[in-house]
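Course assignment 3, question 2. Fill in each field.
Student: A.L.
Task: Predict the tertiary structure for the chain below.
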Amino acid sequence: MHATVSMDSTESRWVFQEDESDIEDDEGEGYDDSPALDSDDDNAEHRLIRTGPRVDSFDVEALEVPGTQRNEYEGYSLGRRFVIAFQILSVVFGDVGTSPLYTFSVMFTKTPINGDEDVLGALSLVLYTLILIPLIKNAKVSLLPNQLPSDTRISSFRLKVPSAELERSLRIKERLETSLTMKRLLLILVLAGTSMVIADGVVTPAMSVVSAVGGLKVGLAAINEDEVVMIAVAFLVVLFSVQKFGTSKVGLAVGPALFIWFCSLAGVGIYNIIKYDTSVFKAFNPIHIYYFFKRNTSKAWYALGGCLLCATGSEAMFADLCYFSVRSVQLTFVFLVLPCLLLGYLGQAAYLMENHADYETVFFSSIPSGAFWPVLVIANVAALIASRTMTTATFSCIKQSTALGCFPRLKIIHTSRKFMGQIYIPAINWFLMVACVILVCAVSSITEIGNAYGIAELGVMMMTTVLTTIVMLLIWQINIIVVLSFAIIFLGIELTFFSSVLWSVGDGSWIILVFAVVMFLVMYIWNYGSKLKYETEVKQKMSMDLLRDLGHNLGTVRAPGIGLLYNELVKGIPAIFGHFLTTLPAIHSMIIFVCIKYVPVSVVPQSERFLFRRVCPKNYHIFRCIARYGYKDVRKENHQVFEQLLIESLEKFIRRDAQERSLESDGNEDDNDSEEESTFSKVVIAPNGSMYSLGVPLLSEYMETNTNSISEAGTSEEIRPAPPAEDSSSDAEHSLERELSFIRKAKESGVVYLLGHGDIRARKDSWFIKKLVINYFYAFLRKNCRRGTANLSVPHTHLMQVGMTYMV
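Answer field:
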């Protein structure tokens, strides 16, 4: 016996281990009436621990599929690891790898070269920007507590000792949870960062491809700017057309090309250093940054926007971590990418020491004549690869935003059976392509595109810094001095860069700001409307008392057959079911509420597809079912196969529960016989101190009686004399056979799919803005997004749909 308190199923909090009153019981569908437990143990050990999320046992069971805890990188051969390294180059580092194509060009367009000291100062800025942002800021990710090996199995439920950091974390968490303003501010920050990532996915292909194709003007004097734009547009169309083949296939195909690109960068850089000027190594002395600003003052400040371009794509290291392991990304950057980039920039600076006038095409002009055309081809291939880096990062962010209810549902295609994070979103892919083509045609200047690039990149960087600081305070619980140092240093650097690019916002880069604002509004409106819809559905869901008052016929006629009601609620009776009862002249003799759940494995075995639980007493014949699918499972299966598998699984559930009931009866367990179902909840404390509250559904003894009515939830237990063991066993067997026979007859009568479409409308007395947002903008997004039932493959003769509108 233990105390129960109704709490949010996703909440976790810090409690003393003996304080069991904070552990939530089962899903609470009207069957829990356990009395409170008195704490009599004065010698109980007090340990401050964090309880696990209040997860319903059904949700826990639904995720228990073989393979969900497997490390995707365990047991790989050396050859396979090399293949992954090539894929990392193409997916993660393509963007930052092509930055030498345009960084010095944009910088010296804003700050003309007046001497060798300007070259050294600009080079020093580039070197330390690379060291501070891609290396120190992003590489530190593995040194923080969230990347411990044990966290691959249990992410956030480690035993904590009371400390100043823990108390600070609890205070901040409480403030965030109780302040509506803080919640909205945090949501705005997250959505702003995500919108900047999507904007980055537009400007990155434009910048990379145009700068690479621009090298033709060095090799072919007759080619003009319009022809460069046309070729760039053709390359962009090809780029987005091959995106559908997936990260692994495309990454493996172009990975070796990017490896050759990095080697070319290093080789050309070493050649230029030896041929032109070895004194460029002086740039590692940061004093040259001071001299650069002293000589050029405000012009040097304008050049900061161009300097930032050397670190473009570094934030993709965060977004693309779902594609590959953290350690593999870091090692590839430190031992291959960074050294090649440094040599490339040093070589370009050495060339500029003797050729000040060639800054606009410094990369291609510095290539030895014998190697020009091969390097030009590799540069264009690398530019196409770089464009994919932010495209895949955009796919990743949009998928996560969709899962969190912050982006309209779209068709997502998983391109790999081994890596869940490797995805392709067709609608976003073509949308980005159109936006890129428009940007290239409207703004063909490398400098103007570079300004837009800097704004998008800095928006992502600043939001990442702010949110990482919050995570360091709340989750990682790092010393406050370290947290403040991180925030002040990196946010200060990024704000300085941001002030530089904002000064040039009128030079065409405003286009990307408008694009980011539009994406932000789409996400905010979708989140706002979805939140109102969900809250309304939860408030208006049918109560168990109402169903009991209606009786087992549900106040209508129960026609033979099975009705599968699809809904998104995992607890409670959806309001749309009441709409079916009042709209239809009859309802099926058996009702199954079906909820689709995706688990992080590629394929779920058919024998483990369905989980069942009773929703009402046995004679109501109402069940809840969770249908589990992996991310590579084909949902559009034959409906007859689906129905047969579902019924077989339901029969197995009923037999298994009958066996459990029989075993409990033989063990003289103290069951509540006045209810058709009782719920036993137990607390499990893991070796690491985690506390879980899991409910196990059990069937009570079914006894036909004409005199006793169905007892309501919350009534006291009724003590009855136990029947003889033989009679009890015989009654249980007859009850089981009657129920199985009932299911088979219902199946023979036919299966109908009941689909309810719930929409929301603003009340007449609502504010004008709310009416505009809900009735027009959100309604438009909902009408054009992918519905949750889009994957059903059901004949129209077996389909019944009912619409319902909620006033909010």
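Instructor remarks: Residues 80-144+163-408+425-527 form a domain with the Amino acid/polyamine transporter I fold (CATH 1.20.1740.10). The chain is about 55% helix and 10% strand.
Grade: pending
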